[in-house]
Amino acid sequence: MSVDNRRTARKAVSGDSAPREIRRRPKNRRAQIAAASAAAFGALGYHGVSMEDIASGLGISSAALYRHYPSKYALFREELLRVGTAMTESVELPADAADWSPERRLRDVLDSLIGVTIENRATITLVRWEGRYLEPQDNVLRTEQQLTVLGALGDQLAAVRPALSENDVRVLRAAMLSVITSIADHHATLPAKPLVRLLNSAGLAISEAELPPEQAAADPLPAVEIPDSFKHELLLRKAVELFHERGYPNVSVEEIATAAGLSAASAVYRFYRGKSDLLAAAFRRAADRVSGAIGPAVAAAADAEQALTTLIEQYVDGSFAERALTFVYYTEFQHIPADERAVLRNIQRLSVEEWARLLREVRTELSAAEARFLIHAAFALVVDLGRSFGTEPIASPARVALLMQLVLFGRPARV
To answer: Taking the model in full, what pTM does it have?
Structure first.
């Protein structure tokens, strides 16, 4: 407890054993609880945090926490919807905006939304990845909030570019929101003013995109038959599918065993130590795919831009080929053991550093931190467009790859 929140009483009589500490409740206790819970939920997920964890982090008792909130869900719901409300309010233009140019209105909406996102970075993680744990009626409200934000971005974009088709507006507004909220997916740091400028610039680059024609995805390749001797591969595939469909906490080892055609859950333990081990193995494969592509791409390229363009294409193709795994990697990362998280974060960090190094050769005006933010934004864009549009032609690989180029280069690639 800080000095500001306590006072020590004087000794009334000489010889008193010790001063008596008088504790005072801080006036902003609910705000402190909201901040602590957002950080905890963002780091460990809704299911990975208890009221006791939050109370302990604040240095208060569980009983004191329950005086403010009747349950963990009530705390989770209030914080998530509070930020959703802040985001919707941020995209409301002032009364005099009617006299502004369409370009100025778009910039203002972007700047306001970016500002709120930066202020609430920890809770934006909940908005992005944990909203699926809201109860149905609350999820309806969250969806309405998101549609309000997307609608405001789309309205301003359509005013700037009235010739855009409705589908193109849908894709571009989703891409802009993805870039802005991507700052919740990582821990890179940058002062607020340059971060606002960076995200605004990336958003405007997206708004100017000349998207290629819509193109239906190629027919998926038939699933490769996995022989019985490779049950570990089948377990990985089925586990990821189930985690994607229902969320990691809602899937049991028994259900994974049944999906893989094993007679009992005990058979799973011949291959993996448990459910989290399955998740870690799948994530390691995804991380190795990204990191392993860097060396060959650089070796075969004439310059950094060509190398990055190749890496973009490979990243999009790999993500489209493993949509479920790409989504699960973002939503369930906190469920793997701490030692595995450390290993995977190190692999990811090294991959981001290599991409950022190449990007800074193309855009020498960027700082290392700015380049890292853009790399994370480009990665997030792929998973967000995938979950928003699935296999719809309006979010084809060619379109997604172009949007990644715009985020990173600020323009289409020249090669």
So the answer is: 0.86
